[in-house]
Write a structure and sequence with these properties.
Elements (H helix, E strand, L loop, with lengths): L2 E2 L8 H13 L12 E6 L5 H12 L3 E6 H4 L3 E2 L12 E2 H11 L2 E5 L7 H5 L2 H10 L3 E3 L7 H13 L8 E6 L9 H10 L5 E5 L8 H4 L3 E3 L2 H5 L4 E5 L21 H4 L6 E3 L12 H5 L5 H23 L1
Parallel strand pairs: 1-7, 2-3, 2-6, 4-5, 6-7, 8-9, 8-11, 9-10, 11-12
Helix pairs in contact: 1-7, 1-13, 2-13, 4-6, 7-8, 7-13
The structure holds N-(3-carboxypropanoyl)-L-norvaline (SN0).
Protein backbone atom coordinates (compact mmCIF):
# COMPACT_ATOMS: atom_id res chain seq x y z
CA UNK A 1 0.00 0.00 0.00
CA UNK A 2 1.57 3.29 -1.16
CA UNK A 3 -0.83 5.73 0.46
CA UNK A 4 -3.76 5.65 2.88
CA UNK A 5 -5.82 8.79 2.44
CA UNK A 6 -9.34 7.44 1.88
CA UNK A 7 -11.36 4.26 1.47
CA UNK A 8 -10.47 4.45 -2.24
CA UNK A 9 -6.89 3.46 -1.39
CA UNK A 10 -8.15 0.12 -0.04
CA UNK A 11 -8.75 -2.59 -2.66
CA UNK A 12 -10.73 -4.87 -0.32
CA UNK A 13 -12.26 -3.18 2.72
CA UNK A 14 -13.60 -6.41 4.27
CA UNK A 15 -10.14 -8.03 4.09
CA UNK A 16 -8.55 -5.00 5.81
CA UNK A 17 -11.17 -5.15 8.59
CA UNK A 18 -10.33 -8.84 9.09
CA UNK A 19 -6.64 -7.98 9.27
CA UNK A 20 -7.33 -5.36 11.96
CA UNK A 21 -9.26 -7.93 13.99
CA UNK A 22 -6.44 -10.47 13.65
CA UNK A 23 -3.89 -7.91 14.85
CA UNK A 24 -6.12 -7.13 17.80
CA UNK A 25 -5.91 -10.81 18.80
CA UNK A 26 -2.12 -10.94 18.37
CA UNK A 27 -0.59 -7.44 18.17
CA UNK A 28 3.04 -8.58 18.32
CA UNK A 29 2.93 -11.13 15.49
CA UNK A 30 4.94 -8.81 13.21
CA UNK A 31 7.15 -7.21 15.83
CA UNK A 32 10.29 -7.33 13.68
CA UNK A 33 8.69 -6.35 10.36
CA UNK A 34 9.52 -2.68 10.89
CA UNK A 35 13.07 -3.21 12.14
CA UNK A 36 15.40 -0.43 10.91
CA UNK A 37 12.44 1.43 9.41
CA UNK A 38 11.42 4.90 10.57
CA UNK A 39 7.91 6.27 10.93
CA UNK A 40 7.57 10.07 11.05
CA UNK A 41 4.35 11.52 12.44
CA UNK A 42 3.82 15.16 11.54
CA UNK A 43 1.10 17.20 13.24
CA UNK A 44 -0.15 20.62 12.17
CA UNK A 45 -3.08 20.33 14.63
CA UNK A 46 -3.67 18.85 18.08
CA UNK A 47 -4.08 15.11 18.61
CA UNK A 48 -4.42 12.59 21.42
CA UNK A 49 -5.70 9.28 20.02
CA UNK A 50 -4.23 9.55 16.54
CA UNK A 51 -0.84 10.49 17.87
CA UNK A 52 -0.59 7.84 20.56
CA UNK A 53 -2.28 4.99 18.69
CA UNK A 54 -0.23 5.49 15.51
CA UNK A 55 2.98 5.84 17.50
CA UNK A 56 2.19 2.65 19.39
CA UNK A 57 1.19 0.89 16.16
CA UNK A 58 4.62 1.69 14.72
CA UNK A 59 6.32 0.44 17.88
CA UNK A 60 4.30 -2.81 17.88
CA UNK A 61 5.70 -3.42 14.40
CA UNK A 62 9.25 -2.76 15.58
CA UNK A 63 9.60 0.65 13.88
CA UNK A 64 11.50 3.68 15.13
CA UNK A 65 8.99 6.49 15.54
CA UNK A 66 9.58 10.25 15.41
CA UNK A 67 6.80 12.70 16.22
CA UNK A 68 6.88 16.40 15.41
CA UNK A 69 4.31 19.09 16.12
CA UNK A 70 5.21 21.02 13.00
CA UNK A 71 2.82 23.88 13.71
CA UNK A 72 4.53 24.65 17.02
CA UNK A 73 8.06 23.30 16.65
CA UNK A 74 8.76 23.74 12.94
CA UNK A 75 9.28 26.78 10.74
CA UNK A 76 6.12 28.51 9.55
CA UNK A 77 5.22 26.51 6.46
CA UNK A 78 4.39 27.93 3.01
CA UNK A 79 2.23 25.74 0.79
CA UNK A 80 1.43 28.07 -2.12
CA UNK A 81 3.57 27.70 -5.21
CA UNK A 82 5.33 30.60 -6.89
CA UNK A 83 4.92 33.15 -4.09
CA UNK A 84 7.62 35.52 -2.86
CA UNK A 85 8.24 34.42 0.72
CA UNK A 86 8.79 37.87 2.19
CA UNK A 87 6.08 37.46 4.83
CA UNK A 88 5.59 35.26 7.87
CA UNK A 89 6.22 31.86 6.25
CA UNK A 90 9.81 30.64 6.53
CA UNK A 91 10.00 27.24 4.84
CA UNK A 92 8.24 25.88 1.76
CA UNK A 93 6.50 22.51 1.83
CA UNK A 94 8.59 21.64 -1.26
CA UNK A 95 11.76 21.47 0.84
CA UNK A 96 10.14 20.42 4.12
CA UNK A 97 8.33 17.37 2.70
CA UNK A 98 11.32 16.31 0.58
CA UNK A 99 13.65 16.50 3.61
CA UNK A 100 11.28 14.53 5.84
CA UNK A 101 11.07 11.92 3.07
CA UNK A 102 14.85 11.47 3.40
CA UNK A 103 14.61 10.64 7.10
CA UNK A 104 11.46 8.48 7.09
CA UNK A 105 10.32 5.28 5.41
CA UNK A 106 6.65 6.08 6.11
CA UNK A 107 5.17 9.47 6.98
CA UNK A 108 1.86 10.25 8.68
CA UNK A 109 0.53 13.77 8.46
CA UNK A 110 -2.36 15.64 10.09
CA UNK A 111 -3.61 18.89 8.66
CA UNK A 112 -7.14 20.18 9.31
CA UNK A 113 -9.07 22.29 6.82
CA UNK A 114 -8.95 26.04 7.32
CA UNK A 115 -12.75 26.15 6.75
CA UNK A 116 -12.48 29.42 4.85
CA UNK A 117 -12.25 28.40 1.21
CA UNK A 118 -14.23 25.32 0.15
CA UNK A 119 -12.30 24.78 -3.09
CA UNK A 120 -8.94 25.04 -1.34
CA UNK A 121 -9.89 22.58 1.42
CA UNK A 122 -11.64 20.12 -0.89
CA UNK A 123 -8.71 20.11 -3.35
CA UNK A 124 -6.61 18.46 -0.58
CA UNK A 125 -3.73 20.56 -1.84
CA UNK A 126 -1.45 20.16 1.19
CA UNK A 127 -1.86 16.38 1.47
CA UNK A 128 -1.41 15.87 -2.28
CA UNK A 129 1.69 18.06 -2.40
CA UNK A 130 3.10 16.22 0.58
CA UNK A 131 2.56 12.82 -1.06
CA UNK A 132 4.16 14.02 -4.25
CA UNK A 133 7.18 15.64 -2.58
CA UNK A 134 7.93 13.23 0.27
CA UNK A 135 8.43 10.29 -2.07
CA UNK A 136 7.61 7.68 0.60
CA UNK A 137 4.29 6.07 1.60
CA UNK A 138 2.02 8.58 3.34
CA UNK A 139 -0.80 7.86 5.76
CA UNK A 140 -3.38 10.54 6.47
CA UNK A 141 -3.78 11.28 10.18
CA UNK A 142 -6.81 13.47 9.21
CA UNK A 143 -6.63 15.75 6.23
CA UNK A 144 -8.83 18.61 5.04
CA UNK A 145 -11.76 16.39 4.07
CA UNK A 146 -11.25 12.92 5.57
CA UNK A 147 -10.10 10.93 8.62
CA UNK A 148 -9.61 7.41 7.21
CA UNK A 149 -7.86 5.77 10.19
CA UNK A 150 -10.80 6.83 12.35
CA UNK A 151 -13.30 5.43 9.87
CA UNK A 152 -11.47 2.11 9.62
CA UNK A 153 -11.53 1.79 13.43
CA UNK A 154 -15.23 2.75 13.39
CA UNK A 155 -16.06 0.08 10.83
CA UNK A 156 -14.12 -2.52 12.86
CA UNK A 157 -16.04 -1.48 15.99
CA UNK A 158 -19.39 -1.85 14.21
CA UNK A 159 -18.35 -5.24 12.80
CA UNK A 160 -17.34 -6.48 16.27
CA UNK A 161 -20.70 -5.49 17.70
CA UNK A 162 -22.89 -6.92 14.92
CA UNK A 163 -24.19 -10.49 14.83
CA UNK A 164 -23.04 -12.44 11.74
CA UNK A 165 -25.41 -12.00 8.82
CA UNK A 166 -27.20 -8.97 10.25
CA UNK A 167 -27.29 -5.71 8.26
CA UNK A 168 -27.37 -3.01 10.96
CA UNK A 169 -29.02 0.38 10.66
CA UNK A 170 -26.33 3.00 11.28
CA UNK A 171 -27.35 6.62 11.90
CA UNK A 172 -24.84 9.46 11.64
CA UNK A 173 -26.41 12.12 13.83
CA UNK A 174 -25.25 15.76 13.79
CA UNK A 175 -24.70 17.26 17.26
CA UNK A 176 -24.46 20.81 18.58
CA UNK A 177 -21.13 22.60 18.99
CA UNK A 178 -19.93 26.10 19.76
CA UNK A 179 -17.40 26.51 16.96
CA UNK A 180 -16.82 25.56 13.32
CA UNK A 181 -15.68 21.94 13.13
CA UNK A 182 -14.29 20.08 10.07
CA UNK A 183 -16.42 17.74 7.95
CA UNK A 184 -13.65 15.14 7.86
CA UNK A 185 -14.92 12.58 10.36
CA UNK A 186 -18.48 12.72 9.00
CA UNK A 187 -17.41 12.67 5.32
CA UNK A 188 -15.08 9.78 5.91
CA UNK A 189 -17.54 7.80 8.04
CA UNK A 190 -20.17 8.13 5.33
CA UNK A 191 -17.71 7.11 2.62
CA UNK A 192 -16.58 3.99 4.52
CA UNK A 193 -20.12 2.97 5.50
CA UNK A 194 -21.08 2.99 1.79
CA UNK A 195 -18.48 0.22 1.36
CA UNK A 196 -19.87 -1.83 4.25
CA UNK A 197 -22.92 -4.03 4.62
CA UNK A 198 -24.99 -1.48 6.58
CA UNK A 199 -28.01 0.76 6.05
CA UNK A 200 -26.71 4.31 6.46
CA UNK A 201 -28.98 7.19 7.46
CA UNK A 202 -27.56 10.68 8.03
CA UNK A 203 -29.50 13.23 10.06
CA UNK A 204 -28.65 16.90 10.39
CA UNK A 205 -30.45 20.24 10.54
CA UNK A 206 -31.29 22.09 7.30
CA UNK A 207 -28.19 23.82 5.96
CA UNK A 208 -25.84 21.11 7.26
CA UNK A 209 -26.01 18.57 4.42
CA UNK A 210 -22.55 17.18 3.72
CA UNK A 211 -20.96 17.29 0.26
CA UNK A 212 -22.86 14.95 -2.04
CA UNK A 213 -19.71 13.17 -3.19
CA UNK A 214 -19.47 11.70 0.33
CA UNK A 215 -23.12 10.97 1.07
CA UNK A 216 -24.31 9.58 -2.26
CA UNK A 217 -26.29 6.42 -1.55
CA UNK A 218 -27.17 7.35 2.03
CA UNK A 219 -30.57 8.59 3.16
CA UNK A 220 -30.39 12.15 4.52
CA UNK A 221 -33.16 13.20 6.94
CA UNK A 222 -33.61 16.55 8.64
CA UNK A 223 -35.87 15.02 11.29
CA UNK A 224 -33.61 13.40 13.90
CA UNK A 225 -36.39 11.50 15.70
CA UNK A 226 -37.49 9.90 12.43
CA UNK A 227 -33.89 8.97 11.55
CA UNK A 228 -33.25 7.34 14.94
CA UNK A 229 -36.18 4.89 14.64
CA UNK A 230 -34.82 1.34 14.84
CA UNK A 231 -31.16 2.39 14.76
CA UNK A 232 -28.60 -0.24 15.85
CA UNK A 233 -25.73 2.28 15.96
CA UNK A 234 -25.80 6.03 16.43
CA UNK A 235 -22.63 7.89 15.46
CA UNK A 236 -22.73 11.34 17.03
CA UNK A 237 -20.68 14.13 15.47
CA UNK A 238 -20.77 17.85 14.90
CA UNK A 239 -19.71 19.47 11.65
CA UNK A 240 -19.96 23.00 10.31
CA UNK A 241 -22.08 23.90 7.30
CA UNK A 242 -20.82 22.80 3.88
CA UNK A 243 -23.31 24.94 1.95
CA UNK A 244 -22.48 28.10 3.93
CA UNK A 245 -18.93 26.94 4.05
CA UNK A 246 -17.44 26.63 7.54
CA UNK A 247 -20.28 28.52 9.22
CA UNK A 248 -22.16 27.68 12.43
CA UNK A 249 -25.82 28.26 11.51
CA UNK A 250 -27.63 27.16 14.67
CA UNK A 251 -27.03 26.44 18.36
CA UNK A 252 -28.53 23.02 17.59
CA UNK A 253 -30.77 23.01 20.63
CA UNK A 254 -32.52 19.63 20.86
CA UNK A 255 -29.93 17.71 18.80
CA UNK A 256 -27.75 16.49 21.74
CA UNK A 257 -27.80 12.67 22.10
CA UNK A 258 -29.60 11.78 25.31
CA UNK A 259 -31.19 8.70 26.85
CA UNK A 260 -34.54 10.08 25.75
CA UNK A 261 -33.38 10.08 22.11
CA UNK A 262 -31.85 6.63 22.51
CA UNK A 263 -35.26 5.32 23.54
CA UNK A 264 -36.33 5.82 19.90
CA UNK A 265 -33.68 3.39 18.67
CA UNK A 266 -33.21 -0.37 18.73
CA UNK A 267 -31.21 0.00 21.97
CA UNK A 268 -28.49 1.51 19.77
CA UNK A 269 -24.81 1.48 20.60
CA UNK A 270 -23.42 5.00 20.64
CA UNK A 271 -20.23 6.11 18.93
CA UNK A 272 -18.14 9.28 18.78
CA UNK A 273 -14.58 9.75 17.50
CA UNK A 274 -13.55 11.86 20.54
CA UNK A 275 -12.72 14.42 21.79
CA UNK A 276 -16.33 14.92 22.84
CA UNK A 277 -17.88 17.95 24.50
CA UNK A 278 -19.91 16.46 27.36
CA UNK A 279 -23.33 17.93 27.96
CA UNK A 280 -23.25 19.58 24.52
CA UNK A 281 -22.82 16.85 21.87
CA UNK A 282 -23.65 13.90 24.12
CA UNK A 283 -25.21 13.76 27.58
CA UNK A 284 -23.10 12.55 30.50
CA UNK A 285 -25.61 9.71 31.01
CA UNK A 286 -25.13 8.35 27.50
CA UNK A 287 -21.32 8.59 27.65
CA UNK A 288 -21.21 6.90 31.04
CA UNK A 289 -23.97 4.44 30.18
CA UNK A 290 -23.92 0.84 28.92
CA UNK A 291 -24.53 1.72 25.26
CA UNK A 292 -21.42 3.84 24.78
CA UNK A 293 -18.69 2.36 22.57
CA UNK A 294 -16.39 5.39 22.57
CA UNK A 295 -13.54 3.83 24.54
CA UNK A 296 -13.53 0.60 22.52
CA UNK A 297 -13.64 2.70 19.36
CA UNK A 298 -10.51 4.53 20.52
CA UNK A 299 -8.88 1.20 21.41
CA UNK A 300 -9.48 -0.01 17.87
CA UNK A 301 -7.57 2.99 16.50
CA UNK A 302 -4.36 1.18 17.47
CA UNK A 303 -5.08 -1.95 15.44
CA UNK A 304 -6.43 0.03 12.50
CA UNK A 305 -3.19 2.01 12.33
CA UNK A 306 -1.17 -1.17 12.77
CA UNK A 307 -2.91 -2.92 9.85
CA UNK A 308 -2.31 0.07 7.58
CA UNK A 309 1.37 0.44 8.57
CA UNK A 310 1.88 -3.30 8.18
CA UNK A 311 0.56 -3.18 4.62
CA UNK A 312 2.86 -0.26 3.85
CA UNK A 313 5.85 -2.09 5.35
CA UNK A 314 4.96 -5.19 3.30
CA UNK A 315 5.11 -2.94 0.23
CA UNK A 316 8.58 -1.51 0.95
CA UNK A 317 10.23 -4.62 2.42
C1 LIG B 1 -11.59 17.39 15.17
C2 LIG B 1 -12.65 17.12 14.13
O1 LIG B 1 -12.30 16.98 12.94
O2 LIG B 1 -13.82 17.04 14.45
C3 LIG B 1 -10.78 16.15 15.43
C4 LIG B 1 -11.53 14.89 15.69
C5 LIG B 1 -10.69 13.67 15.68
N1 LIG B 1 -12.23 17.80 16.40
C6 LIG B 1 -12.18 19.05 16.86
O3 LIG B 1 -11.61 19.91 16.21
C7 LIG B 1 -12.84 19.34 18.19
C8 LIG B 1 -12.48 20.69 18.69
C9 LIG B 1 -13.34 21.16 19.86
O4 LIG B 1 -13.11 22.30 20.25
O5 LIG B 1 -14.22 20.45 20.36
Amino acid sequence: MKQFTSVHDVPNVAALVEEVLQLKQAPYTHKTLGQDKTLGLIFLNPSLRTRLSTQKAGMNLGMNVMVMNLDKEGWALETRDGVVMDGTTVEHIREAAAVMGQYCDIIGIRSFPKLQDKEEDYSEDLLNKFIELAGVPVVSLESATRHPLQSLADLVTIKEQTAAGKRPKVVLSWAPHIKPIPHCVANSFSEWMQQADVELVITNPEGYDLAEEFTRGAQVLHNQDEALQGADFVYVKNWSSFENYGQVLTDGKGWMMTNEKLALTNNAKVMHCLPVRRGLELSHEVLDGPNSLVIEQANNRLYAAQAVLKRMLDGIA
